[in-house]
Amino acid sequence: METGIFTLTVLPVIAYLAGSLPTAVLAGKWLRGIDLRDHGSGNAGATNAIRVLGPGIGLSVLIIDAFKGVGAVSLAYLAAGYIPEESSFVLFQILLGGMAILGHVFPLFASFRGGKGIATLVGISIILYKEAFLICLVVFLTVFLTTRYVSAGSIASALVLPFAVIFTDGMNILPKIIFAAAIALFVPIMHLNNIKRLIQGRENRISFKR
Question: What are the residue ranges spanned by the domains of the chain?
Answer without folding.
Answer: 2-200
